[in-house]
Design a protein that fits this description.
71 residues; mainly alpha
Length: 71
């Protein structure tokens, strides 16, 4: 097994960026699911680590529709 210091620097940076992306997407999706009272989505988002895929799916499926402009 390799040590973390044996990996190229770009791999370490890539892992850090992916971890940060996953954390941000998860926090946004969990916050919105809690505000929308979607308990099942909140539980799934809290349990499963999917590298940001599940939070993105939630955010796409439950995005707010733009308000039509008044004439």
């Amino acid at each position: 097994m390799q040590n973390l210091t044996d990996l190229p620097i770009w791999v370490i940076v890539l892992l850090g960026v992916l971890a940060l992306f996953d954390a941000v997407m998860k926090l946004i999706a969990m916050w919105r699911s809690a505000r929308n009272n979607h308990l099942v989505w909140f539980i799934f988002l809290a349990i499963f680590n999917t590298i940001g895929i599940l939070p993105i799916v939630y955010l796409i499926l439950h995005k707010k529709k733009a308000m039509p402009e008044a004439e």
